Fold:
Amino acid sequence: MQWTFFNIWNDSLEQRETKELKPRQNMWAGEMGGAYVDRWLKMKAVPPSNPYDPRSLRKFEAGNIWEWIVSMVLKRAGILIDRGEWCGFQYPNLLKVTGKLDFVAGGKPDYDKAIFEITHLGLPQFIEKATTNIITHFKEKYPDGLNEIILELKSCSAFMFEIYESKNEANKNHKLQLFHYLKAKQYPEGHVVYICKDDARMLEVGIMNPSPLEEEYKKDIADMTKYVMNDEQPPLEKFIVYNEEFDKFSSNYKVGYSNYISKLYGFKNQGDFDEKYKPIVERWNRVLGRVRDGKTMTANNIQAKDEILKEFPDFKFNGG
Structure:
């Protein structure tokens, strides 16, 4: 081959501006719900022992591409009110939380003008079709315009998309992040919007304000405030966690995705962590299945049950 552009493309996606680490007293909305110990180290400007690898950086840029596409659709549909606004909120005596929302959408567009402009812009066919369909739907259903809502866009794999879709519920971290924007701007409603990077499916989950979610939001801030003000390192995360809703164990993603996994937990990287704990999780979940189905327990199954009870002394086996 005389020339190629794939190397330049890949290299460009892996080049991100390096920001100087500085101690801070404010929390980022996008970190809410994450491991306290990681956030504490970041706020103290401790350099990560495991910075993002090239694949992670490319995934971030893939998310930015989808965000740009959605912004184009909203803008050409005439319902993009604001984008990328910084929002801050602070309870008395607690740390301030700041973050940058994705989109504010709604208002009363000129639907006919929007359709005319869309068909004369030479946009990619799927964007033109999607935008035209959106405008036509809004024109028919909401002739007097749309209420303003905050949209928080998250791109994800098909695997994660199907989990969110099956539950029709957003990730806890994403809910807390969006609730922050609602609280900061005193908006009554926002939507976490998931888009599947594999097949462009979209899912939208509503979050309201006021909401019981505020208890979790405030607790997250209060806990983080305590650690920061006392200069107390938060406890490390457990390697294995139990999900009550799905009645299964899983390796803790807060450890696997930690930027301090070597410093805090002694693993070389996420692969090293997964290699050790995913087989254990699979073994424990097989035992849960056997108990649930009332099957005879083997010596190996009994040993696995003992391991579970050692790690989770109060664990109640379903049916045994």
About this structure: The CA atoms of residues 140 and 304 lie 59 Å apart.
